[in-house]
What we know:
By secondary structure, the chain is of the alpha+beta class. It is built from 1 helix and 4 strands, in the order ββββα. The longest helix has 12 residues, at 60-71.
Amino acid sequence: xxxxxxxxxxxxxxxxxxxxxxxxxxxxxxxxxxxxxxxxxxxxxxxxxxxxxxxxxxxxxxxxxxxxxxxx
Length: 72
């Protein structure tokens, strides 16, 4: 079984309010696809990095939505 690794990067706005948080690790089950994944979230001076490890390939839009929910 091949593991997939996805890296998603972004920025927290407004940038004038500097924030650093993490790293935090989560394990979750996506409700509509049934995919399981492990996630590591790190925010350093408003730069967001989300690493997602999974045993299956993800639809990029589902993955984007998961990352957005983790940061929100």
